Amino acid sequence: MALCVSRFGASLAFMVHAGALPATLRAWGMSGGEAGAIQTAFNFGYALSLVVSSWCADSLGAKRVFLWSSWASAAAGLAFALFARSPDSALWLFGLLGLTQGGTYAPSIMLVAQGVAANRRGAAVGWLLAAGSLGYFASIALAAALSDAIGYEAAFVACGLGPLLAALVVGPGLRHRPNRVIGARGLRLRDAFAFLADRRSILLTAGYTAHAWELLGMWAWLPAFLTATLATAVTNTSGTGSGGAVASGLWIAGAIHLSGALSSLTMGRASDRLGRRAVLVAMGAMGTVCSVTIGWMGALPVWLILPVAALYGFAALGDSPVLSTAMTEATPPDRLGAALAVRSILGFGAGGVAPLAVGLVLDHVPPGSGGAGWGWGFALLGVGGGMATLCAALLSSDRPASSSVSRPHHRS
To answer: Transmembrane residues, as ranges (predicted)?
Structure first.
């Protein structure tokens, strides 16, 4: 429970840039490339922190790294809230926030893997990621509503307090949880890549990399696409724009993360029953179809676009708990942190570029091209979804995990 509440609080700051994007585009006069670069800075910082925290968790203990990162994220969240007032300052401060957030994610998965039986682990990781998705929804909802009604500054402050809430909750919640150290200190770089000698680990790592490209690009730009689409629909209907319509668009975009929370809860449990491979193939294929179609739907009625957006959110996040759970099962416990570190730098390295890539597509496609910029931008994300589906299909058929749970030797 403490881990889930903490994941919710930390995630409140995760989507603040996407939620407040229409307001900051107007206030700062940003181009699509500049806006995408701010999210990319966060993603690269997040990738680096995932690598360092995962690596250190083997030799220092997941709990210790998790608590340190929680307080660092609280400080960075407040710094962004108070001092991000231009594209340049937002880029550096949002990047700093990403640099602290990774340590609140991978170590939490390791804490789950250390104490939950394999036949329930998919569901447990699903609960953890669902709490994060609820935080993403709240982040977009708060940022959209406050930036439209008061200003983006208020949105930054409200969402920036989330990591502080997480740090205050998780300390007492984990007081009686042991700090397990299962890896050797001073792990050699060659040993860290040893898990890639296994074919299943290679496919899971490649699939995660492709999945991250699609997911992080979608998270960054789908709220802005829905906002633009709904604002156009309101203008065509009433002849005037509406600030309330913009806020409504981002509230509905937040529903993407509610569907993501539902997918984390259901797909993690489904993989416990049906096997990891079947769920990964289904979610990857569904996400790919959504990526290559939704950007071309801007001229269609809103009641057709929104269900596809919700399905997109469901599919793009549905394989996250399954990929993470499968990695904990394919990797020896004393190498799990190193495996997550390698996976993180590859996945979030690729995913970090995705928002910038979509922004550059939007900048270079002529405005009068009938929404082709959105269509090609999201189709570019679909390449990642297709590769993730292929990697999942190449996995060997698996049966539901056994009920055993490893209890490795540890020292506190």
So the answer is: 38-58, 65-84, 90-113, 125-144, 150-170, 242-266, 278-297, 303-324, 336-362, 374-395
